[in-house]
Automatic annotation (TrEMBL):
This is AGE family epimerase/isomerase. InterPro entries: 6-hairpin_glycosidase_sf, 6hp_glycosidase-like_sf, AGE/CE. Keywords: Isomerase. Belongs to the N-acylglucosamine 2-epimerase family. The keyword Isomerase applies. It holds the Pfam family GlcNAc_2-epim. It comes from Candidatus Kirkpatrickella diaphorinae. The lineage of its organism: Bacteria, Pseudomonadati, Pseudomonadota, Alphaproteobacteria, Acetobacterales.
Length: 404
């Protein structure tokens, strides 16, 4: 059951094209960089590894759709990841080209694996090599077979492992592993994704009424005060992050769909747990103050903590609402889908300069407490694409299925 009418589908396609066009200016010699609110680079712009990986993936999706310019943009990203942002001495990738001593983050490497899988499917030059390199690093260093999750980070030489375990890195690794499974047909990646989901979604989130806790020590003890002095941290904020509840929800449903397609069955807990996470995201995260929207974080009493409205939070919740509606047929999800898109259209889409404000305040005014400018393409673009495609392990696989 599709939400999208023909007019809505055309609107989504147009919005996705505008996002891709806006981000083409992010290209620099060694990758992709952040853009300001008007879509301009700073004079000293340099490639950012996470943005490069996510834009490489996004442009590869555009290439699969047949959108001109996207193949070349994605090929540029692949080349830069292989030859500029890589670490030739120790393996893996640097977040900045000159950051020789920086830590190797699972979060970042998950996006490189995702980019590799998408570029492999889109037949981008160098995509197979990026895919092979990324999966080798993922298996060699980050994956813990004993625990069924990934380690968080290492020193540049892989000798020092961080004494911290986080939900965010494991969530994006789940996304990457589903894409790896789709790109290769190797269901070991699906089994690993399900192991991560079972720990975080089926066990940890249920312990907190489907509000996903984020921060743990190496022995999986909850760290409730983690980053209490840095509540608006862009990657590891204090408290609870409702946008992640929704993101885990739709990843669970994609894993369910992929498991049924590949094995004829999926764990019975997947859809009920996804529904629980979504309800927590919207019913606890939506703030009626000002123009509405889902806040960035909640405290442990489920009250708004960092009240800025991050664009990715709304985008991931839209994706979850659409997939849950298609999975269940319940009007509750269709109504939230419409409500969220109304909010995004009226507060986050910039009709003057293009793209989305990456963050707005309670009144819908562009702000920069967490995310200044318009650095991100990945979340918003995928939000415009997902409702147009079948539910599958990855958007690349969904595009292929839509062509069949």
């Amino acid at each position: 059951m599709q939400i999208a009418t023909e007019a809505h589908r055309l609107w989504l396609l147009n919005q996705g094209q505008r996002l891709l066009d806006f981000s083409k200016n992010a290209r620099v010699a060694d990758g992709f960089c952040a853009l300001d609110g008007m879509g301009e680079k700073s004079r000293k712009a340099e490639a950012d590894g996470i943005l490069t990986a996510r834009m490489t993936h996004s442009f590869a999706l555009g290439a699969l759709l047949g959108i001109p310019g996207c193949h070349a943009m994605s090929a540029h990203g692949v080349d830069c990841l292989l030859h500029h942002l890589n670490d030739p001495d120790h393996g893996g990738w640097r977040e900045k080209r000159a950051d020789i001593a920086g830590r190797k983050q699972a979060y970042y490497h998950a996006f490189i694996a995702l980019a590799g899988a998408t570029c492999k499917e889109a037949r981008i030059q160098g995509g197979d090599l990026l895919f092979q390199s990324a999966t080798h690093i993922l298996e060699t260093h980050f994956w813990s077979e004993t625990e069924g999750v990934v380690y968080e980070s290492f020193s540049a030489d892989w000798q020092d492992r961080e004494d911290y375990r986080g939900a965010n890195a494991n969530m994006h690794t789940t996304e990457a592993m589903l894409a790896l499974s789709a790109a290769t047909g190797d269901i070991k990646w699906l089994h690993r994704a399900v192991r991560i989901l079972e720990r975080f979604v089926h066990h940890l989130s249920r312990q907190h009424d489907y509000c996903m806790a984020e921060h743990f020590d190496a022995d999986w003890n909850l760290l409730p005060d983690y980053n209490i002095e840095r509540k608006a941290d862009p990657l590891r904020p204090y408290g609870l992050t409702p946008g992640h509840f929704a993101e885990w929800a739709h990843l669970t449903l994609k894993a369910e769909a992929h498991a049924i397609a590949k094995m004829g069955r999926a764990p019975a807990w997947m859809c009920p747990d996804a529904e629980g996470l979504f309800r927590s995201a919207v019913e606890k995260g939506w703030c009626h103050e000002g123009t509405g929207g889902i806040v960035y974080t909640l405290d442990w009493e489920r009250r708004p903590c960092v009240t800025s409205r991050a664009h990715w939070v709304q985008a991931e919740t839209i994706v979850a609402a659409d997939i849950l509606y298609r999975r269940t047929g319940h009007e509750y999800y269709r109504e939230w889908y419409q409500k969220l898109w109304d909010y995004v259209d009226l507060t986050m889409i910039d009709p003057k300069y293009g793209s989305w404000f990456n963050e707005v305040d309670a009144e819908g005014v562009a702000s920069g407490e967490i995310y200044p400018g318009k650095a991100d393409l990945y979340h918003a673009f995928q939000c415009t694409l997902s409702p147009l495609l079948p539910v599958a392990a990855s958007l690349a696989e969904a595009i292929w299925l839509s062509k069949a």
